[in-house]
Design brief:
This protein has helices spanning about 5-15, 20-30, 35-50, 55-65, 75-85, 90-100, 110-120, and strands at about 1-5, 35, 70-75, 105-110, 125-129. The protein is of the alpha/beta class. The protein folds into two domains: about 1-75, 3-Layer(aba) Sandwich (Rossmann fold), CATH 3.40.50; about 90-129, no CATH class. Strands 1-2-3 form a three-stranded parallel β-sheet. Strands 4-5 form a two-stranded parallel ribbon. Helix 1 crosses helix 3, helix 4 packs antiparallel against helix 5 and helix 5 packs antiparallel against helix 6 (about 90-100). It is elongated and about 50 Å long. The termini are far apart.
């Protein structure tokens, strides 16, 4: 199994550098690939900020990549839940934090904006401090 970095995923999804995109494709087609949550978090930021992709498109790309036969995703339940919440308007970083915190049942934050947004989106109680 081979864990991949953000730049490999970006080349695979965006194909803006043909040489690197082909090498990334070869990895996804020829290896068992592990997608790490932290790498997906960084990848979402790169796709949103640098490539100006919207959350719907990023979510579609992530779900398609996760569905590839040789791809394994770290904490798949939390990642797919976070992608769903991102599609409903929650920032992916917050969504991933909250989805990963689900076993705790509650998530504490000083962030008033987060506490307000989660109410109609996520299934975890956010405690505003």
């Amino acid at each position: 199994m081979l864990a991949v970095d953000t730049n490999v995923i970006v080349r695979f999804l965006i194909s803006d550098d043909s040489v690197q995109a082909e090498r990334a494709r070869a990895i996804f087609e020829g290896e068992a690939v592990l997608l790490l949550k932290t790498v997906l978090l960084e990848t979402e930021w790169v796709l949103r900020r640098l490539y100006r992709l919207n959350p719907r498109r990023i979510g579609e790309a992530f779900m398609a990549m996760i569905a590839l036969p040789a791809v394994q995703c770290e904490d798949l339940n939390a990642v797919t839940k976070a992608i769903g919440w991102m599609r409903k308007g929650l920032d992916f970083a917050y969504a991933l934090h909250l989805a990963s915190a689900s076993p705790a049942g509650r998530f504490a934050t000083f962030d008033r904006t987060l506490a307000g947004r989660v109410v109609n989106v996520a299934d975890i109680k956010v405690v505003r401090l």
